[in-house]
Task: structure prediction
Amino acid sequence: MSQMENKDTSYHHILKYTGIFGGVEGVNIMVGIIRNKLVAMILGPNGMGLVSLFNSTIKLLSDSTNFGIAMSGVKQISENYDQQEEKARLETSVSLIRSWAFLTALLGMVLCVVLSPLLNGWTFNWGDHTLHFVFLSPVVALMAVTGGEAAILKGLRQLRSLAKISVYNVIGALFTSVPIYYFYGESGIVPSLFIMALVQMLLTIGASYRLYPPRLSFSRQFLQKGMNMIRLGGAFVLAGIMGSGAEFIIRSFLNNAGSLETVGLYNAGYMIIMTYAGMVFSAMETDYFPRLSSIQSVGDSLNACVNRQIEVSVLLVSPLLVALMIAVPILLPLLYSGEFLFARNMIQVAIFAMYLRAITLPMAYLPLAKGDSVSYLLMEAVYDISVVLLVICGFKAWGLWGAGLALTLASVLELMVLCAYMHWKYGYRLGSLALKYASIQFLLGLMSYVVVCQDNPVVYWLFGGALFGASLCYSVIVLKSKTHLWESLKRRIKR
Result:
């Protein structure tokens, strides 16, 4: 196969699975909105708050005890997946992940029971919910098992199975939780959370057990083979804790320097930006990370893999970001209420952080793919510290708009640090095509920002629409030239 065909296949593969998982994420968001609306109508604000508190506490406990196997296990499988002659090693890796996932499931469940009085005290300042956390302890175990099996499917490139599981899971959550809440009200919260976790686990193991029937081993010699995986997963957990800590500090500062309303506006803006762009980035962990982990050496192959992912991500996300920037005045009242329009300026300036994220995220996976936990933690620490300091300074100087600007500036700093560090550590260079596409789309984004700052509605919508069209056309033209996408679409339309 020629180099051009390899290149075309690579672009087509990235675009195909980014589209699949982006579409899946869109379905999940829409079904999630329907489910949240129905649950909110049934349980009311108090019940929704109770669900949120239980979910956040259980997730924190799960993330702290699962040793990051859901991420590090992908690398463990991917390293052996392409070496078909070493099938025994692949089977060993699968068994290793399952054995460790089972142990972390037991650890999380036992800790949830033991710490239930403390969890009750930390989470609630009214009533005694200790028994609720005891009954929720199996949920922690189910989440750990699900994470391990999902890692196996990702490493084995079972991408269609993962997409189906994701859709079936969110639909299953809709049709199981809503009836339970309808008939039992707040008393059904704990059973509903357990059933949703059970459904997700059954869907995941149903796909993975068909490929590799369950085989566990708990001998000390066997488990020691997974210590590198556990160390890498531990780094992922620590990075997650640092990220959560940074968000906690930011929200606490905004609450003290502003008000609870300020925190709500910031959180609404942050969620809109991350959720919308997340539709494109959702394929990173599922498809890109396993492919990157399978590349053993550094050099041209590694650079090409990262740069092509950046190019496709930039071309796909940029038109969506222009559309989001223009549509903010419509989306905020639609998703929340008219009171949240005060977050509009913050969202529009923070959208530029997502342009930069399309470049930085593929690079940020490099240390994880190479098992370099120290580098991964270092890069995460640099970003977390910078975003806290910049948001505090930005809010003090310019309010919520300054906080949005700070998110963009933190991403600029992250890009500069990542480019320098990844070049020094792995010899990675940002490709000229990736830089070209990003520069053109970023310029169109800047022009869009100038337009949305205008008070004239004719200028706002006319020129905003034109810039969205320009961004979309540029992305389509480039992607068409790099893949057989156009011919594939025409064949489907004819059929």
In short: The CA atoms of residues 80 and 90 lie 6 Å apart. Residues 3-65 form the longest helix (63 residues). Residues 1-9 have pLDDT under 50 and may be disordered. The radius of gyration is 23 Å.
